[in-house]
């Protein structure tokens, strides 16, 4: 009753509907498929971006470590220079004291050697 014969092939009305659905997919199905593809593409782009950020983060960590090491070396050099400067200032203070004492002794000697 529901079947028609076309040539030698027996068909059902449901078969016609199925053929139409397969030949012309519903927009909702296409939309879902497009959404899925877009979501997969966005996910892949996100994973790629995440990998890039992880790589950049590693590079920045290494750069930060290098900068910290340079900072420690620079601070050590500054401390060494400050110690040398302090030593030089102390030597200069001692030499100024000695110069002052010798100038005073020289002035006293000149004063005592004057005939008047």
How would you characterize this protein structure?
Strands 1-2 form a two-stranded antiparallel sheet. The protein has one domain. It is built from two helices and two strands, in the order E-E-H-H. The protein is 84% helix and 5% strand. It has helices at 13-23, 27-113; strands at 4-6, 9-11. The termini are far apart. By secondary structure, it is mainly alpha-helical.
Largest sheet: 2 strands, antiparallel
**SSE order, as H and E?**
EEHH
* Overall structural domain count: 1
Query: Would you report the number of β strands?
Result: 2
Q: Helical proportion?
A: over 70%
Strand order of the largest sheet: 1-2
Which of globular, elongated, flat, extended, rod-shaped describes the shape? Answer: rod-shaped
Brief summary of the model shown:
This protein is mainly α and 116 residues long. The chain is 84% helix and 5% strand.
Structural features:
2 strands, rod-shaped, single chain, 116 residues, 5% strand, mainly alpha
Task: Please give the structural blueprint.
Elements: E1 4-6, E2 9-11, H1 13-23, H2 27-113
Antiparallel strand pairs: 1-2
């Amino acid at each position: 009753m529901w079947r028609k014969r076309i040539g030698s092939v027996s068909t059902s009305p449901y078969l016609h509907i199925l053929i139409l659905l397969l030949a012309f997919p519903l927009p909702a199905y296409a939309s879902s498929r497009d959404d899925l593809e877009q979501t997969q593409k966005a996910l892949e782009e996100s994973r790629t971006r995440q990998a890039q950020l992880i790589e950049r983060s590693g590079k920045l960590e290494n750069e930060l470590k290098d900068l910290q090491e340079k900072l420690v070396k620079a601070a050590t050099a500054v401390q060494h220079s400050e110690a040398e400067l302090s030593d030089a200032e102390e030597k200069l203070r001692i030499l100024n004291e000695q110069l002052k004492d010798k100038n005073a002794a020289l002035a006293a000697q000149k004063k005592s050697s004057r005939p008047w």
